[in-house]
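Batch manifest, entry 17 of 40.
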Amino acid sequence: MSGESAPLTFVRPSPEDAAEPRPGTGNVRRVATSTMGCKVNQFETEAIRQALRGADYELVPFEAEADLYLVNTCTVTREADRQARQLVRRALRRNPDAFMVVAGCYAQRDPEAVAAIPGVDLVLGNGEKVDAHGLIPDLEAGDLPQVMVGDPGDGAAVPEGLLTRFESRTRGFLQVQQGCDQSCTFCIISSVRGGSRSVPVRHVVRQVDRWAQVGTREFVVTGVDVGSYGADLEGGADLAGLLAAVAEREGDFRLRLSSLDPSHITDELIDLFREEPKLCPHVHLSLQHGDAKVLKQMKRRYGPDLVRERMAALREAAPDLVLSADVLVGFPTETEAAFDNALALVEELEIAYPHVFPFSPRPETPGGRIPESKQVPAPERKARAARMRELGAEIRTRVLARAVGRPQRVLVEEPDRHHPGWMRGRAATYLPVLLPEGRAEPGELVECVPERVEEETLVAPG
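Output type: structure tokens
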């Protein structure tokens, strides 16, 4: 489905058009979900799971046999589409008689292709998936069309009501914004998520209060374009103001900022990093590239000089800052010199955790329609991605080494599967930490001084 075409809207069919009900209608009790992609998807899956629990369905692991499987998909690359199809096939091998629901961004972008996957019973767009729990009885009875996909911009920024808990009681993804008004030439997300919509401050604060009551210690503030928060709200709300309002709430918790466009790093936000102890000294940047010409061709809102200036100011405010970032390599017309500029900026900014994506042409985007002669060959895209990841590993080694012997405040998460007798957690800087069992329980915030690094992880003494 083209990003420029009208959205597909499917209404309930007439009785003669509906599918035949399956034997055993009313017997769906065990439901399994799988989430692909971004933190926004993870938040939305949690809302779906809460609604399923409220409707008395039993939630089971996706690897278990279930009566109904729901895959909440991503479509940022062709590889994501392939993985979604693979998940569907894998689930139906476990139970060929199960109902299969495919939802999310891949379903929104190309519902016909998703509906054609063998075994798929229901295709739900981003606006429709939050009502999945209420559609199950009609799905069992054969009273639904196979595809229900509407305009992604019609819905609210987040599902109505509050999430009472997150799957991980220690950390919750706090969605404060939905959609994007920017049409970057490589990106399809604005067409499957709609325009930017913000969650009112009062609703965000109520959600934080609810989760804090059940022991959530870290809130990862997220959205599709989180830095644009408040532009659609009355009263001059912005991201810095929202974070300040949340930080004022009672409780021993911390805030982590996710997927921030460099152009949205305002002076007010920098001041908050300097002054607010609840705000973690870690930022995940939506960086994408480091070459001025490539950034312009991508239709990004900044150039490398602005990135340097903003990050220098942010590091002055938060000296312990650790950076992660999205980095896209192999964009059409990216020369070797342009790629070298991207490497140089990642090195200069000291991005310890680059999330590297080789360019994936999407026909619905301007970047995907650039002639083949100007595309970077796929093997070269793969090679450049490997070089960028190698640089990230080198930077990460330096950043971890500097953290040895320096006090860290760690959120303890769970027993480490690979190191019996140890607990795994994250420092405020996002660096992973191992602590001996018995030192703290999951969900506790503890102080420690790491004594060494093993396997890209800080290790604290007993």
